[in-house]
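Predict structure. Input: long-chain-fatty-acid--CoA ligase, 618 residues.
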Amino acid sequence: MYIWFTIIAGLAILPVILKTLLDPYFGQDCSYMFKALKLGIRMAKYKKKKPFYSILDCFLDSVKKHPNKTFLHFEGASYTYIEVDKQSNKVARALQTFAKLKEGDTVALFLGNDPCYVWTWMGLAKLGCAAALLNFNIRSKSLLHCFSCCGAKVIIAAAEMKEALEEVLPTLKLQGISVYLLSEECDVEGIQPLAKHIAQASDEPLSADLRADITIRSPALYIYTSGTTGLPKAALVTHERVWAASFIQVVSGVTSEDVLYINLPLYHSAGFLVGLTGAIERGITVVLKRKFSASQFWEDCRKHNVTVIQYIGETMRYLCNTPKKENEKDHKVRIAIGNGVRSDIWTDFLKRFGDIAIRELYAATEGNIGFINYTSKIGVVGRVNFLHRRMFPYTLIKFDIEKEEPVRNSDGLCIEAAKGESGLLVGKITKFSPFVGYAGNNQQTEKKRLRDVLQKGDLYFNTGDLLRIDEQNFVQFQDRVGDTFRWKGENVATTEVADILTMVDCIEEANVYGVKVEGHEGRIGMAAVKIREGREFDGANTFSQVTSYLPAYARPRFIRIQSSFEMTGTFKMKKVSLVEEGFNPATVHDPLYFLSEKTYIPLTEEIYTSINNRKIKL
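Output follows.
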């Protein structure tokens, strides 16, 4: 009887086993899970190790292992591991003596991409200080906000940031903030030059006792959200998070022999955590760029034998828009790590520039759940597998776009989204996958916590992002909740509409959003578009495109022509001001168009009035 039961049970699960084994991605799933398991064991060891072993200690081990290996290439200059180590020693000693910094202090860095960024941060880490990475593009109110919310008492800025500092200097003085400039001299009272003190300091190693009380849960960094929907928030990044982010390169297949190209800003998690600390974990060479340049990108890669590149937002599209050349596949790049590339651009990129493994990510600086596409599948951010879900419990739940809140059942619990259905991604907050929150902003921290999700009393992190898991268990990013609007009772995903618009020959870029209309519920679709050089807006062709590929409720009724878009430091299009300005031709000075019966026509004040008077039905 027992034998027959075993045979029947075996036959019952045989289809499941065969389906798993025959899955074309089974081998890649196993490889990923093996790497993840090894990294999980490493992290567990780091948590127990005393004294604490940080990413800085990992760098110091590399200095001992290969002191003369090039660590940084920058604008024609090269710096070895030992040279960067010694320079960071000088910075640490100067700050210890001159600025009186000590373990536990927080220092704001107001610097652009430059080698001094790297060794200044390392110098702070050697003293046990946390660094707040300020966006060097912010000014005035935003600068003061970002600085104050991290609790820093010291700010170190690049020489070219002097004018920006002068704007807020009276307030900084009132708050007793010490302001230092990485220059030889400064004629502004209240701003002290630091370069001479660094130059005169000793480059001898510092005692690890200076950071003896730092643990894996201590603050390492403060990295700011992009602020597309308001003032930036300071995400507190612990040393544990630094390690976790550095492992992304491991999972992506980066080895100690690779050369990494960083052209993203170091004040952001992509450039600093995934890029710089990931390179330190691997012990590799970094080619650092002051800023992204599509025209210089591939020449830089060839010159330095780059094998791994980073991308974010629209950078791949910028590369695909460059004039074609015969030697486009003449390079050694084999891996690209990043997020935010559209499927059509992904395909074009591979056709033009060769067989490069695209490791598309989904993650947030402050979040406790992330994905990585470790397969060759185009257009996805990851894949569901047992180990990942076990280590980082998550689910997709139904979300009401209009009310901007999860849908709950009669018991007050959230409803899980079905397979193939878009849902709000939430990650369970556990000891292994914590959510630390935002510095100096308990209200925003609490807004990200979601309670009573699947069981009464449970606690999840609300990513604010809509994702979808398809029948093959691939994870697809759909949209950000704030970038999704509801019109005619339907949800409109702005990224989907933007993808359709950029297929129009005359349109180079599209920024889609929803605007309020007097007397109507929800928000109607509008798009700010940039026209290709030498072209004019083709209303008829655009009309044909949107009516062919989009349902009526998703078609942008208004088009705004812009010569350029306001972007964040990570190439995200800003929308808040566009939403507020709406489509009134009396106040919007850019050319405006309205979707009529057969084409897009110029939006006149007469049409605007008729819309508000409801003479024109929308």
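The longest strand covers residues 459-469.
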